[in-house]
Every structure is written in C-alpha cells, then in structure tokens.
Amino acid sequence: MSRAAVLIGLSGLAALIAGASVRADVRASLAAAAGHEGAPLFEQYCFQCHGPDSAQAYADLSAAPAAERSIAQLRELISKGRPEKGMPAFGAQLSPLEVLLLVEYLHVVQGRPIVEPPERPAPRPPDPRRERGLELFRGKARCAECHSLLGEGGFVGPDLSGVGKRLKGPKLRRAVLRPSARIAGDYRAVVLETRDGRRVRGRGRNETPETIQVLDESGELWTTWFKADLRSFRWDDRSLMPDDLRERLSQEEFLDLMYLLRRVE
Ligand code: HEC
Ligand code: HEC
Question: What is the pLDDT of residue 8?
C-alpha cells in the first residue's frame, strides 16, 4: 500500500471510530480488521510489553500519557526508546515508514484523528520581501514568461526551483545579469531562416543530420524543421534570455528578485 493510501485509509478509519464511546481494544481490532499495516507490527514488536495482558502501568498506550504525545514525540520514543526504563529502541530494527505506521496505529487505538500527515512542513511565516520578489518574477521582470517556479510559468528556460542551491553566490547573479556568459545545458538557441525569408530563433534540441527541433516562443510547441527546407541554420552562442535586466529594474527591485531566487525551494 502506498503512503498516501495508508493515510487516506487511516483518517477515514480514525474518523469512524474516534468516539470516546468506543473502547481501545475494540479500536485495535477494528484497525487490524481494516488491514492497517501497523497492527501486525504492534503484535510482533510491542504486544509482549504493551498488550492488555501486561500487568505494568506503562502497558496501556491507548491512554495518557501516550495518548497525549505528539506524532514527533511518539516517533522519537519508538526509535530511540528509553532503554534505562526498559523501553527498547527500535530505530535499528524498524524502517522510518514502519515507525510511522506504528505511530498511526497508536493514533487509531487512542481514538485520535490524524489531522495532518507528519511530514507536512510547517506553514511558512510571512516574508514580504519574498512576496515582492515573487511579484516581480511573475510581473514586471517577466521571468515567468520563460521560467517556472513553484509549479507555474514557462518552459523556454529551466525550472528555477532550488536555483539558489545549484548556483551559489556570484554565479547566480552572473546567470541573471549576463546570461550568455554560460548557457545552461540543453537550453542552447538556434537561429534559422525559412525559404520564404521568415527568421526563427528558439531553443533547439535533438539535432540529426536532416532535422532540428525548435521550441516556439510560447514555449509550448516543438516544431521539427527539415534542414533541406531552410535557407540557413545555425546554433547561437547567445542566450535566449534577455540581458537588459539592469535597465528594467531598480537596484532595490533587483535585490528583491535575487532574495527570492536564493531562497525558493
Ligand atoms: C521489553 C518491553 C517493551 C517492548 C517490547 C516495547 N516497550 Fe514500549 N515501553 C516499555 C516500558 C518499560 C515503557 C515505560 C518507559 C518509562 O517509564 O519511561 C515503555 C514506554 C513506551 C511509550 C511511552 C509511553 C509514554 O507516553 O510515556 C511508548 C509510546 C511505547 N513504549 C511504544 C512502544 C512501541 C510502539 C513498541 C513496539 C515497537 C514498544 N513500545 C515495545 C517497554 C516495552
Ligand atoms: C525569453 C526567455 C527568458 C526570460 C524572459 C528569462 N529567462 Fe532566464 N533563462 C532563459 C534560458 C533559455 C535560459 C537557459 C540558457 C542560459 O543559461 O542562458 C535561462 C537561464 C536562466 C538562469 C540559469 C539557470 C541555470 O540553471 O543555470 C537563471 C538563474 C535565470 N535564467 C533567471 C532568470 C530571471 C531571474 C529572469 C527574469 C528577470 C529570467 N531568467 C528571464 C530564458 C529566459
């Protein structure tokens, strides 16, 4: 079962049996009956000490304090244990997914709904400078016409997600201000002239002795040209990216844009 399927299946199940009126042992058997993968893991690794027949006070994980711990705390407790108190560490025997399945299983048994997948990152605090950078990227600076970022934008140039990690320090600045100094692989320009005198310049790929493919300006359509039908054809050392950004943005706007590019994942 995929991770998403586990979560969806489980939140449905948890919602169904989350009422306080349902006893923990009933929830446990429901979860097992529904095929939750945490149930057999619990049976195998935890039952001997945390099963209902265990006489110790720590045995019951369906109630407080275990039922009040966060997902992160439960993951840590299972992975690292509390060896000095008799709770073994399972981090070496169980994979991270198995630990997570156990945490989810405990939630079901505890009657707690699973509000959000544990891996979901915390919401980003507002950052006005980043917002200004994004506005420029999509608007005045016109970067989005050719580049995608955060899943939106064009395809003439490379996706710029994580570009601040790929191009560090002055390299990023140079790529933005002097695009032709270094052309990103696979994004070279070709210039061709058709027999009826039309000039086309665009991103080229898949050259063969007879043909060349060129991406049109909208960045959506690849056209295959037969060289025999062309008046001229050549690769171009200049980038398709405009190099007049300095003239189009103020210093402050430029810095906001760089701020965005350095940070955006
Ligand atoms: C050999 C016995 C033993 C096994 C096996 C065992 N535990 Fe424990 N567990 C303990 C003991 C003892 C404690 C109490 C530790 C303490 O008092 O701090 C404990 C505590 C815990 C707690 C913390 C309860 C709380 O909130 O303070 C969690 C959660 C837990 N165990 C989960 C598991 C899971 C899940 C498994 C199976 C992967 C498991 N344990 C297997 C003995 C065991
Ligand atoms: C007309 C299309 C076009 C526009 C508009 C454009 N770019 Fe580009 N950009 C490209 C192409 C094509 C490349 C790849 C060739 C190259 O490296 O010059 C590129 C490369 C880059 C690179 C290097 C990426 C890498 O992985 O090496 C960065 C950074 C970049 N652009 C940023 C920007 C920013 C910021 C803007 C807006 C100010 C922008 N671009 C506007 C077409 C464009």
Answer: 41
Per-residue confidence (pLDDT) for residue 4, from 0 to 100: 38
Radius of gyration (Cα) for the chain, nearest Å? 29
pLDDT confidence band for 250 (50 / 70 / 90) = very high
Q: What residue's CA is closest to ligand 2, atom 23?
A: 175
CB-based contact 101:41 (threshold 8 Å)? yes
Q: Which CATH number fits domain 3-109: 2.60.40, 3.10.20, 1.10.760, 3.40.30?
A: 1.10.760
- pLDDT tens-digit readout, 225-238: 999 999 999 999 99
Please, what is the average pLDDT of the chain?
85
Q: Which ligand is nearest to the CA of 147?
A: 2
Its pTM surpasses 0.70: no
Residue-wise burial string across 119-156, b where 16 or more C-beta atoms lie within 10 A, e elsewhere: eeeeeeeeeeebebbbebbbeebebbebbbbeeebbeb
What is the domain partition of the chain in residue ranges? 3-109, 128-183+241-263, 189-236
Cβ 257 vs Cβ 264: under 8 Å: no
Q: Which of 37, 41, 48, 49 to mutate to test the pocket of ligand 1 (most atoms within 8 A of CB)?
A: 49
- The atom number, within ligand 2, closest to the CA of 248 reads 38
CATH class of 128-183+241-263: mainly alpha
Distance CA 110, CA 112 (A): 5
Q: Number of H helices and number of E strands within the chain?
A: 11, 7
Question: How remote is the CA of residue 226 from the centroid of ligand 2, in Å?
Answer: 28
Q: pLDDT-based confidence at 13, cuts 50/70/90?
A: low
Nearest ligand to the CA atom of 181: 2
